[in-house]
Automatic annotation (TrEMBL):
Cited PANTHER family: INTEGRAL MEMBRANE PROTEIN, MEMBRANE PROTEIN-RELATED
Pfam family, one: VanZ
Positions of transmembrane segments: 6-31, 43-61, 101-119, 126-153, 165-183, 204-229, 249-268, 280-301, 307-325
Organism whose genome encodes this protein: Paramicrobacterium chengjingii
Name this polypeptide is given: VanZ family protein
All residue ranges annotated as the VanZ-like domain in the record: 49-181
């Protein structure tokens, strides 16, 4: 595998891993700060995450082995690259394109252009913030290199070059200017407090958050058991592994159960600002039924042995997916079976005659 391809693969895999961990907080913040989560804005944030990982990978990787570290001197003279470019020759455009010093400067500029663009497109920040951010990020990278990753190595294994600092800062500035020319920010900011329709994609997003919370909670319990074992200094703890396995299931299961029993909605539905409305079935019956036919049933079937459990799990997932699109108001399988509607949590609750009229109309 080429040395240029390795950092790219590391950036993609690391970005995907961070995206999984940050998925639920990202959805929650999107709904509370902007009132919704749009597909293209999510893609942009994912691209920004991959870019951040690439910035780290291409400036610090590969890490040398301790015995192979070769200390490199510092380059602290500003604009030394001008002499380097002239030394290799700039007699024509073709010579300039093939000039290694010129190519190096251009790559350093291009590397930081997305930073300025993302700051403007996603953060709404202008030229000053982009320039300062480019300088700070570049300085952090250069200091990390010159200190041997903050003392991990005995000396710098990459050159601290002040010209890199200048080129990177210029790249962030240029990226911000390009963003200003290609994209104009809307003067009307979305009202995060305004109710929005319940769509099928919003329902599916809530389901994904529920599934993600279950698995992340399970991984956290497993990670805690590994940390305890590491600190204990033994490959296995005196506590039976079954205790941690049970905790990995019981903790998220209990929290989701309480969420549904108290409010009729799961944690994922709370994240995407969905509220349940009872129509016919009393809450004492509807809410447990909604739990069993939703995330509760999913978690129970996941722990079931292969065979019938896997078949029922697949059936539950498929039916839930289809009914998120086909049921009235996109309430889905669990809420439909429990005769419950779903509405935006920011909508005013119905009281008195209005609620009675709504239930009568729903029939």
């Amino acid at each position: 595998m080429s040395s240029a391809l390795t950092p790219a693969l590391v950036a993609v895999f690391a970005g995907c891993a961070f995206a999984v961990v940050a998925f639920v907080p990202f959805v929650a913040l999107s709904y509370r700060r902007r009132g919704e989560m749009t597909f293209w804005r999510s893609i942009l944030w994912f691209a920004a995450l991959i870019y951040a990982m690439a910035l780290w990978a291409y400036t610090l990787l590969p890490f040398p082995e301790g015995r192979d570290v070769t200390c490199v001197p510092l380059q602290t003279v500003p604009f030394m690259f001008v002499n380097d470019v002239a030394r290799f020759g700039v007699g024509s455009v073709g010579a300039l394109v093939q000039n290694p010093a010129a190519v190096q400067v251009a790559l350093n500029v291009v590397l930081f252009m997305p930073l300025g663009w993302f700051l403007r497109r996603l953060g709404g920040r202008g030229i000053v913030v982009a320039t300062v951010s480019g300088f700070v990020v570049s300085m952090l990278i250069e200091v990390t290199q010159v200190t041997g990753i903050w003392g991990l190595y005995s000396c710098a294994y990459r050159v601290f070059d002040v010209d890199d600092l200048i080129a990177n800062t210029a790249g962030a500035l240029i990226g911000s200017i390009i963003g200003m020319l290609l994209w104009r920010r809307s003067r009307q900011n979305p009202d995060a407090g305004a109710p929005r329709p319940i769509t099928a994609m919003r329902r599916l997003l809530g389901m994904l958050c529920d599934v993600a919370l279950f698995w992340i909670a399970s991984w956290i319990v497993v990670a805690i058991s590994l940390v305890i074992a590491l600190l204990d200094g033994r490959p296995q703890l005196g506590i039976p592994p079954a205790v941690f396995d049970t905790a990995a299931f019981v903790l998220p299961f209990t929290v989701q159960l309480l969420s549904v029993l108290i409010g009729g909605v799961t944690l994922g539905e709370r994240i995407v600002l969905i509220r349940a409305v009872h129509r016919v079935t009393p809450a004492a019956i509807a809410r447990p039924l909604r739990f069993v036919l939703g995330i509760g049933g999913y978690m129970l079937l996941v722990t079931w042995e292969a065979g019938l459990g896997s078949l029922l799990l697949g059936l539950l997932v498929v039916v839930s997916f289809i009914m998120a699109f086909t049921t009235r108001g996109h309430r889905g399988l669990a809420h439909a079976a429990a005769t419950m509607d779903v509405v935006d949590a920011r909508a005013e609750p119905l009281h008195g005659h209005a609620a009675s009229d709504r239930r009568a109309g729903a029939r």
